[in-house]
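S.,

Sequence below, as promised.
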Amino acid sequence: MGDDRPCQIVRIGTVQIKMHGGIIRTLTDVRHILDMTENLIYLSTLDGKGYKYYSGDGVLKLSKGSLIVMKADLKSAILYRLRGTTITGDTTIISNSLSNSDANNL
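The prediction came back faster than expected:
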């Protein structure tokens, strides 16, 4: 959260994200935290599952093999905004590792 205070995880579930091209990706074991105003995807978790990511010119691309599975645009110095929509809220990618959330079907 940026202020060193702990936040309670109220449930763990699955979130579907509709990508800019209409493809639906599913993230599993997602932590729901009431105090968060943005949804975060941790790149280090995806890296551990074999996904690669690279950025340039303000665009971050996440790939598995030769397939690009997600794209995001630079929002601030450390955050990218995903090109897509979730069922509720906005999804943001951050590069620091603080969670054990998993990605499925990416």
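The beta strands are 9-19, 24-33, 39-42, 52-56, 59-64, 67-74, 79-82, 84-86, 91-94, 102-104.

Coffee later?
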